[in-house]
Design brief:
The chain has about 400 residues and is of the alpha/beta class. The chain has helices spanning about 45-55, 90-100, 120-130, 175-180, 190-195, 220-230, 270-285, 290, 305-320, 340-350, 370-375; strands at about 15-20, 35-40, 40, 60-65, 80-85, 105-110, 135-140, 145-150, 150-155, 165, 170, 200-205, 235-245, 250, 255-260, 260-265, 320-330, 360-365, 375-389. The strands form five sheets. Strands 1, 4, 5, 6, 7, 10, 11 and 12 form an eight-stranded mixed β-sheet that branches. Helix 10 links the parallel strand 17 and strand 18 (about 360-365). The structure holds magnesium ion. Magnesium ion binds near residues 240 and 265.
Length: about 400
């Protein structure tokens, strides 16, 4: 999906109608498809976001009366809802009536179950109305077409000149409202209504990703495309503490730092690497370091903490994510971290197999307050960001 085209100029009075009154459950599940979960929110919420991203700030949702309570969270910042009618055309007409008399010149009418309409596509339709009475995206057909019956091919159908229609379909408001008032009530889409009123409809280039969620598998396909677009972004945090004990060095973020004390722990007590490892498990919602490497298990006695971080890094890859940033803060009065920070950054990046520029290691004191201030131990904080795809 490209997002490069200019947004529609809001001063042109461009509004969107998103039709979402259907009860369609052919996609599977018990909820209508526009209310099913897609990356943590309803399909319809993504569809609304698509228009907001494209700069369309006035949006009318057409909803089934039963869905009005469900829609409460979506109604804000220029988004309103009207109740749908008995047919698609009747539903759209209710929304057009709601927009009439408000100074809206242009309207884009869109299926609620198409959450992947790109900003570029939306802008293309809106801008085409500078030159055309109506405009809609479509794609030419590449597969052969058959007429079938009873599981048998009855005839081949010539595909020349045929298109697959998409939405948003764009119109001048007055023209499409008049067309709807005069049209038969059972049109398949608004272009059919426009044609019945004699409007000239331009065909614009559609987008293969602008899928209408309809059949089982469509929702997963849309989720996959969204994932590839980097839309699943996760953050995790980690915190760890180890107390000082007798010794002559501490291991911090994979680097041995000579010091007059050591750090006490079941493994090598690398407090920075432990916080980072926990942050990764946190972003993936896969528990913490103790769940994967129980301290009660003697095999981790004195273990190199790289083993833990390497495991967490493998989980990132296995879950289809990549790490875009890690930020670790070590909290102690001594030893001084600054002279070792670059080596720590390199050591962590090597285990994670990422560029060192994606890993930050910094340090702070606690102004001699608390257990770190009294020199009883070292604490560490970590934050990571993971992106799918
Ligand atoms: Mg620890």
């Amino acid at each position: 999906m490209t997002e490069t085209a200019a947004a529609p100029d809001p001063s042109q009075g461009c509004a969107a109608i998103i039709v979402a009154a259907g009860r369609g459950t052919r996609v599977g599940g018990t909820l209508p498809k526009q209310w099913q979960d897609l990356h943590g929110k309803p399909v319809l919420a993504h569809t609304i976001d698509a228009f907001r991203t494209a700069g369309v700030s006035q949006i009318v949702l057409v909803l089934h009366p039963d869905d009005m309570p469900r829609a409460a969270l979506l109604l804000a910042d220029g988004v309103e809802a009207v109740t749908g009618g008995a047919t698609r055309s009747a539903s759209v007409r209710n929304a057009l009536d709601a927009l009439a008399g408000r100074g809206v010149a242009r309207v884009l009418i869109h299926d609620g179950a198409r959450p992947l309409a790109s900003a570029a596509l939306i802008a293309r339709v809106a801008q085409a109305l500078d030159h055309f009475e109506a405009a809609a995206p479509a794609l030419p057909i590449s597969d052969a077409l058959w007429l079938g019956d009873g599981g048998r091919v009855q005839a081949a159908v010539p595909r020349a000149g045929l298109f697959r229609a998409q939405t948003p379909q764009g119109f001048h408001l007055d023209a499409i409202l008049a067309a709807h008032r005069a049209a038969p009530p059972d049109a398949a889409d608004d272009v059919e209504v426009a044609l019945s009123a004699g409007l000239d409809v331009a065909i614009l280039e559609g987008d293969e990703d602008n899928i209408k969620i309809t059949w089982p598998g469509d929702l997963a396909r849309v989720a996959r495309i969204m994932g590839q677009a980097g839309m699943d972004i996760r953050t995790g945090t980690g915190f760890d503490v180890h107390r000082f004990c007798d010794g002559d060095a501490v291991v911090l973020c994979g680097v041995r730092v000579p010091f007059e004390r050591g750090l006490d722990g079941h493994s090598d007590a690398d407090v920075g690497m432990h916080a980072l490892t926990d942050a990764i498990y946190g972003a993936l919602a896969e528990g913490d370091i103790g769940r994967h490497f129980p301290p009660s298990d003697p095999q981790w006695k004195g273990a190199d903490s790289r083993i833990f971080l390497r495991h967490a890094a493998a989980r990132i890859a296995a879950r289809g994510f990549r790490m875009t940033s890690a930020d670790i803060t070590l909290i102690c009065e001594r030893p001084k971290i600054g002279p070792h920070a670059a080596a720590m950054q390199d050591a962590l990046a090597a285990v994670l197999e990422v560029e060192p520029s994606r890993v930050s290691v910094k340090a702070t004191t606690s102004e001699q307050l608390g257990f770190t201030g009294r020199g009883e131990g070292i604490a560490a904080l970590a934050t990571v960001t993971l992106v799918s795809g």
